[in-house]
Design brief:
The protein is an alpha/beta fold. Helix content is about 30%, strand content about 25%. One of its GO terms (cellular component) is endoplasmic reticulum. GO terms for molecular function: ADP-specific glucokinase activity; metal ion binding.
Length: about 450
């Protein structure tokens, strides 16, 4: 095993050395087009009242849904059931002079990050041949090629963007799609067939939010998830499994994912919106549509402890695994929890790398530009909401704080928040992938 490249403050020449550590990544794929929330080509006027919808049927619902998440600065992704409307959204995005195209989806975004770090990766996704041909040589693609590219549209906005009476408290995006390929996990069989030959050290599962509120026939969704569950069951325990969470509103789907994926995962990655959603599911059997977009460190750490304690009770039979790693990425900080008895290593370095990667991705640069950076965290933070909790101070020379509790280690790294936002979409995927690189 070759020594991994160390994190640098600036990356003038990203390492291209192929590392023998391999990563098998499964998840949805799409090409994402971005447009700003202030774009008026769709004739979306600020609605009188924001409203949440599980899926979008018309322009009024889209406007109300956008306002709902926009006013909270919360990320979300929703299925557009009206095909004609979605075609109009795509045309509007393409007509915007500010639109950009990116290879997106959880798995492709994570794969590109891992390949950039010099790792060999197997990507299970359905892509058009021209996209496959443009991927780095370190990426092996399994899955039949598509004739037409799946498009997802990101409506991105910056902090303090004004839309009618609404003001965005932070930069974020609403993603809409009309994807009919990825909800069925169409490349799953090819992924399963190639795992034994590839022999990955880590399998990453992502993109399951494509199933959320999709109009499946009765039993179709559960059948596909059971095949994924069977694939994870058959993996040797020496192969780590990481599940990258996303925005879910269908409580039945999230319960099915808990049973078929989360109970078979060593590691989970998610943002500040998705963490309380999972906590709510574990504690009450329900989901939360919205949460604080800038939560306190103490709140996040307590929620992490809740998830960890619950999933540590998993009985390791039939391929099930106890959770040993949890990575929460927020705008203001990165927090990683790892079990002391696990083989995860370099937790402090992983938290630091995740924070640096977040800045680079959002700014769209390989450089850390201090003139485009701000720190949202105070000079100290509470380790818990408990009144008896201790207060932890940041040290300038060593800003990542790590400490031990019970059978685990927690590391918190302050975020270098980019003040000149180029993109928020794909941020969590790049951050999670970067954090994983140093921990195997």
């Amino acid at each position: 095993m070759r020594h991994r490249q160390q994190e640098q403050t600036t990356l003038h020449h990203p390492p291209r050395t192929v590392n023998p550590n391999k990563r098998g990544v499964w998840g949805g794929s799409d090409v994402e087009s971005q447009l700003t929330a202030s774009n008026t080509r769709l004739n979306l006027t600020p609605p009188a009242s924001p409203r949440h919808y599980d899926s979008v049927k018309n322009g009024q619902e889209l406007a109300e849904l956008l306002a709902f998440f926009f006013q909270h600065g919360a990320a979300a992704e929703r299925y557009v059931a009206n095909k004609t409307l979605f075609e109009e959204i795509v045309k509007s995005a393409e007509s915007s002079p500010k639109h950009r195209w990116h290879l997106g989806g959880n798995a492709p975004a994570m794969v590109l990050r891992l390949a950039k770090e010099g790792l060999d990766v197997m990507l299970s996704a359905r892509l058009t041949q021209d996209i496959v041909d443009r991927l780095p040589k370190e990426v092996k693609v399994v899955g039949q090629t598509l004739q037409k590219t799946d498009i997802h549209v990101l409506m991105e906005y910056e902090k303090d963007t004004v839309w009618g009476q609404y003001i965005a408290p932070r930069a974020n995006r609403l993603i809409v799609h009309s994807d009919e390929v990825n909800p069925y996990l169409q490349s799953l069989e090819e992924f399963s067939e190639n795992l034994n030959r590839f022999k990955p050290h880590l399998v990453v599962v992502g993109g399951l939010q494509m199933m959320d509120n999709f109009p499946f026939k009765k039993g179709e969704r559960w059948a596909r998830l059971q095949i994924l569950q069977s694939t994870l069951k058959d993996l040797p325990l020496s192969t780590k499994v990481h599940f990258e969470m996303a925005s879910f509103t269908d409580v039945d789907l999230l319960k099915e994912i808990l049973e078929t994926v989360i109970f078979y995962s060593d590691s989970l990655g998610m943002n500040e919106q998705e963490l309380p959603n999972l906590v709510s599911l574990l504690e009450t059997g329900n989901v939360t549509v919205i949460a604080d977009s800038n939560p306190r460190v103490a709140t996040v750490l307590d929620q992490m402890r809740t998830v960890y304690a619950y999933l540590r009770q998993t009985v390791e039979t039939g391929g099930k695994r106890k959770l040993t790693r949890l990575h929460i990425h927020t705008l203001a900080f990165q927090a990683i929890l790892t079990s002391k008895a696990s083989s995860w290593k370099n937790t402090m370095s992983a938290a630091a790398k995740a924070a640096l990667t977040a800045h680079r991705h959002v700014c769209g640069s390989d450089y850390i530009d201090l003139m485009k950076t701000k720190i949202l965290m105070d000079e100290s933070f509470s380790s818990s909401r408990d009144e008896k909790s201790r207060r932890i101070n940041f040290i300038d020379e060593r800003p990542v704080n790590c400490w031990e509790e019970d059978d685990y280690i927690i590391c918190v790294a302050p975020g270098l928040v980019c003040t000149h936002v180029k993109q928020t979409g794909g941020g969590g995927d790049n951050i999670s992938a970067a954090g994983l690189v140093l921990q195997l």
